[in-house]
Every structure is written in structure tokens, then in C-alpha cells.
Amino acid sequence: MDFSTERLQYRGKTAIGRPTFSRPIKLALRDRIITSEKTVLDYGCGRGGDVSLLNSIGIDSVGWDPNHFADGIRLASDVVNLGYVINVIEDPAERVSVLKYAYSLANECLIVSAQTEATKPSKGVPYNDGILTTRKTFQKYFANEALRSLIESSTGARAFLVERGIFFVFKSEEARVRYALARLSRKSQFPSVRKLKSLKSSNDSSRDDVLISLAVERFRRSDILSSSRVSLLGCEEYFGSFENACNAADELLASLTNRAARMESMKGAPCGKMLPDSFYFHCSALRSMDIKIQTLVSCARTIADNIDGDFIVKIPKTGTGVSLLIYRDFENVPHPELMVSLLVDLEQRTLRTRSYSNSKNPPILHRKECFVLPDHPKYQAFRELTEVEEGLGLLSRSDIGFRKSWAAILKQISFDPNKFVSKKTINPDSYPHI
User: Fold this and answer.
1) Domain-located, residue 75
2) From residue 142, how far is each of 115, 130, 176, 197 by CA, in Å?
3) pLDDT reading at 153 higher than 90
4) Where among 171, 201, 218 does a domain terminate?
5) How far apart are CA 103 and CA 81, in angstroms?
6) Are residues 372 and 393 in the same domain?
7) Domain-embedded: residue 181
8) Domain limits at 195?
9) How many domains does the chain have?
10) Per-residue pLDDT tens for 188-198?
11) Distance (Å) of CA 61 to CA 38, 134, 176
12) Domain check: are 166 and 264 in the same one?
């Protein structure tokens, strides 16, 4: 493959030193795509951090990079990592060529990762279909589906989304099924937040986990679990066969658009805030919700790039949309500000993002105890603060929904909720009275 010297110099500036594994390699190790029995080629290895770290734990790895390791060997290997390479290539035809060549070197799996639109900076000079950065390097920022399409059209194989901007592309049936089993058992579609006690029995919960996992795969339109020749974890135990489990998953997906079923799930929720048009709850309570709500949110997360961390779920009583609302430090700020709203349309499979990070007057949150389960570690503190604010008559006002008006109200009565956030008990007499 031909690389111009000038372009190589600019692309070489994007390589960074890594004290730990890159995210794609971490995911491949977690899912046992990379094991001590596998060989690895890091194609476009930059400064070689992943190669050194893999070799240090006994995994046979080599690397090649046109700028930093031009003398490296591009050796056919079980796993080939193409980590954040195609996003620094300004020529679309060259991206395709690199993808094809890297895939040809993979015996079992090609890992492809690239920068996504979620990380696109506000500054930069437009160039071709990307931007030139202040360091005179080219960067292309991909939407997930656009990146998937590029990978699949270049390799002729299915690309499976693992995390935002990271895909696995399998060559062997064995590797594909092994990944399916790992993902099914890991239950990765659930938020990785505090584990609170489930209201279900352990047997029911396990069955639901299998069903939700299958439903999410069917929603993805993924064929990764389509092999009826493989006995997948829990399918025979709970459903009699893999085919029966898939049928049950399809029925579950169909029920998500049923308004009556959705309303019934909301009414039976162990926590949450019900407003005239929507139902809200914190993601820490997801595992205690009805299976329809769990599936609804899990499917929405696949469209929203598998959002991690704290968020509030907003489910409208009608329609096919689900909103995932990210607030600033929900746990510790008395009235956190809305930072990002992710509106997912499950029927159209679209994502609409609205950022409030630069807003001078973002919406804020009140009555946080309504959104979490009673055994949430900070439930009592949330509730006590709400009771004090209710006693002051603050929460019955109609002008408290945004930061500026709320700040003006607090200043008027010399009240600072932040002073009481970390207190285990709250003395109402310590608050000012109107």
C-alpha cells in the first residue's frame, strides 16, 4: 500500500502513548476475543502501547504502523486490531483499501474502531469529509451506522457494534458464537451502575435476562444469535429451545408499542415520577422494572451508543420514543442541571441529541427521591431535602424548573441546599422560613 511521506507525518501526530490498553483491546480481552491462545496483529499500532502490553501478559502480538513501526510485520493473525486508523485517513478510497487489507489478515476477527460524532470538537477547518485540527492532522468523525456501513461494504461481512465507534467483524462461526455467548451472559445492555436488590425472584430474573438479551439482539436485527445448531445459555432451560426463546423475544418486542401494556408496566413500577404525559425514573432502578420497560430502555441504549453512567429515563405514555436524560452529577448535586437529552425513536431507529452544556439557563431536577428505589443509598437524604423545600413552599411554585429562576428564589430567601447535601440528618429548624 502506498502512503505519501507528507500524509504519514501528519497522521503520525495522532498517535498517543498508552500506559493502559486501548478501549477496543480492553473490550476484546473482556469478551475473550483475545486470549493467550490467540495471535494478534495491531495494524496501525501507533507507538505500540497495546502490542507491548499484550506481550507482557503472554499474548503473542505484533504491530505495524506506517510512521512509527514501518519495519513491523503485517502478519496474518487470529485477531487484527484496526484501532482509530480509518478516521485519520482523508481519502475515502484508501479507507476502503485499508479495511479490506486488514480484514484479509484476520483469521477469526477484525476489530475496527474510529472517532465518532459524539467526540467531534467545535473547532476545526472543514477538509474533504472531515476536519483539519489545529495540529494539522485530519480527523473524520463517524456516525455509528455510517461506520458500520463502511466496514460491511468494504469487507463483505457483518459488523457487530460493541460500543460507540467500536465493531467486531468475525470470519469464523466458532468465534461469532463464542462472542454471542459472552455477550449474552454478561448482560451488557443493562446500566453498569449500583446493583440494587431486585424485586423479582432469582429464577424469574435469570429467565428475564435471557429473554431481554435475545430481544435486544432481535431489535438490532443481528444474526449473531441466529444459529439454531447452537444451544445458547438458558434458552433450553427456560424456553425449551432456541427457536421458542426467539419467538418469545419477538412477542416481547411487539408488546413495546402496545399503549395499554406500556401503561400497565408504568403503573406497577416500584418507583418513578408519573406526569400527565410521561413516566420518569433513574437508571439505577431499571432492573426492578417490568420486563417491558427493561427491554424498552435496553433497545433504546443500543441506538444511543450504549450510554453508560447515570441517566434519567423518560417514557412517554404514547408513541415509540424514549428519552435518556443525562444530568450533571445526579448523586451529589441537590438540583442537577440537564446536560444532554437523547431522544430515541424505536420505530424509526433514530437518535436526536440536544445538548444543554452551553446553555445559560438549563432545566434542573427536583424531588430526586421520586426517581430512585427506597434502598438507594441517598434516598433518605433526597427525601429530607424535598420535605424541607416543601415546607418552605418552594416546590409548589411554577417558576422553579430552570436554573436562573431557581437561583433567584434561593437568593431571595438566603437558602443554600448544597450545605445539606452531605448531612445524614436534616434539622428543619436550621432552614430559613418564609
Assistant:
1) yes
2) 6, 9, 25, 39
3) yes
4) 171
5) 9
6) no
7) no
8) 187-376
9) 3
10) 344 333 332 33
11) 9, 34, 21
12) no
Digit-coded pLDDT (tens) for 61-80: 999 998 888 888 899 999 99
66, HSE (Cβ side, Cα atoms, 13 Å): 19
Q: Nearest-CA neighbor of 81 among 49, 57, 119, 58?
A: 49
Query: Is the pTM value of this prediction over 0.85?
Result: no
| Rounded CA separation 391/413 (Å) | 13
**CB atoms closer than 10 angstroms to residue 56:** 9
Supply φ then ψ for residue 363, to 5 degrees. Answer: -65, 155
Statement to judge: residues 30 and 51 lie in one domain? yes
Helix, strand, coil distribution of the chain in percent, nearest 5? 40, 20, 40
CB 228 within 8 A of CB 243: yes
Tell me, yes or no, whether 368 and 384 share the same domain.
no
- Give the separation between CA 72 and CA 14, rounded to whole angstroms: 19
Q: Each residue of 372-408: pLDDT tens digit?
A: 999 999 999 999 999 999 999 999 998 999 999 999 9
In a domain, 226, yes or no: yes
Closest by alpha carbon to 311, among 293, 336, 274?
336
Q: Taking a C-beta distance cutoff of 8 angstroms, is the pair 24, 87 a contact?
A: no
Residue 416 in grid coordinates: 443554600
Does 344 lie in the same domain as 316? yes
Q: Which residue type sits at 144?
A: N
> Is residue 92 located within the same domain as residue 157?
yes
**What single string gives the DSSP state of each residue in 363-390?**
BB---GGGGS-TTSTTHHHHHHHHHHHH
- Among candidate residues 158, 165, 157, 163, the one with its CA nearest the CA of residue 140: 165
Contact 161, 167 (CB under 8 A): yes
Local structure of 215: helix, strand or coil: helix
Assigned domain for 329 exists: yes
Reported as type and span, the H/E element at residue 175 is helix 173-186
**Three-class secondary structure of residue 311 per DSSP:** coil
The CA distance from 35 to 294, in Å, is 32
Exposed/middle/buried for residue 42 (C-beta within 10 Å: 0-12, 13-18, 19+): buried
